[in-house]
Design brief:
about 290 residues, mainly alpha, 12 helices, about 80% helix
């Protein structure tokens, strides 16, 4: 993990991912919050407070070791991933609401993610008892790595809309390919422990995914949102940004730990199945409601 290639590559991947996100955002995405104030506030409350608390409870209930525990809370503190928009579209969600939540959450995460992770580090003391990266003094660095590329992406879209639209997909593909290579290298370096990690965090990651998805839908409906808003929030807070979480975990200038990245890697595989199952169930429920009406 001390390779100069990784030292340069991992922060670059994070910047590219955030720049790609910025290419898909406009100022109107932030203004759109006015159309769903109650639903947005409830969704953000669940994302920022309730889900980290639920994750912490699962960690204690299953007795996770220090590094996987920090990794789970890093995952819980991460905002919704880009695939949430895709799944929301596929299963009849309000994609505009997804974009609004992604935009707001991505900015808030610059401040809330370091807070949650530092509290987790202080509580669990992973490794040999020393402090592990991403301390409060690193907040400015995280801010620069995350928010500046997003702002640059939004600026590029505002100045050259057509170019931004053409670049959006290649930028996403490039970042995913590079990140996949870094993750594979990290897992290969820990190959002797991968089976143990899967056994240790697989059930917790699955339960956390199911709880996140269910919480999103129910919270949106309680907030007087319709079915489409429920699906949108279900996917938005149920599909965390594993790319961001793993990049922070692996970055030598931040957490620099393959062990902390493992929960996000496990979750990244499981969530495609749990979110797909949730989407199918919600679509079937909506179809029954429509037929009954």
């Amino acid at each position: 993990m001390d390779s100069p290639l990784v030292t340069v590559l991992v922060p670059l991947v994070l910047a590219v991912i955030m720049f790609g996100l910025g290419l898909s955002l406009t100022a109107d995405d932030f203004r759109r919050v006015a159309a769903y104030p109650r639903t947005v506030l409830v969704a953000l409350g669940c994302q920022l407070v309730l889900l980290p608390a639920v994750c912490f409870g699962l960690i204690l209930a299953f007795g996770l070791a220090a590094a996987p525990a920090v990794g789970m809370l890093l995952l819980a503190a991460s905002p919704g991933g880009t695939m949430a928009n895709v799944y929301s579209h596929l299963f009849g969600g309000d994609v505009a609401l997804n974009i609004t939540l992604t935009a707001i959450n991505s900015v808030l995460a610059v401040f809330t993610l370091p807070l949650v992770v530092n509290l987790a580090i202080d509580y669990f003391e992973p490794g040999d008892g020393g402090q592990v990266g991403l301390q409060f003094t690193k907040t400015l660095q995280v801010f620069a790595l995350v928010l500046i590329p997003v702002a640059l992406g939004m600026y590029a879209r505002a100045r050259r809309l057509e170019l931004a639209r053409r670049a959006e997909r290649p930028v996403k593909l490039l970042s995913l390919v590079i990140l996949a290579a870094v993750i594979v290298a990290a897992l290969v370096s820990e190959r002797g422990n991968v089976g143990e990690y899967l056994a240790e965090v697989g059930l917790v990651a699955t339960l956390f995914s199911v709880v996140s998805l269910a919480t999103g839908y129910l919270a949106a409906r309680i907030a007087s949102g319709g079915h489409a808003q429920g699906v949108a929030v279900c996917m938005e807070i149920g599909m965390h940004n594993t790319s961001l979480a793993m990049t922070i975990a692996l970055s030598p200038t931040l957490l620099d730990s393959a062990e902390i990245a493992v929960p996000s890697a496990v979750y990244a595989i499981l969530v495609y199945f749990t979110a797909g199952a949730a989407g199918l169930l919600l679509r079937r429920a909506a179809a029954k409601t429509t037929a009954g009406t």
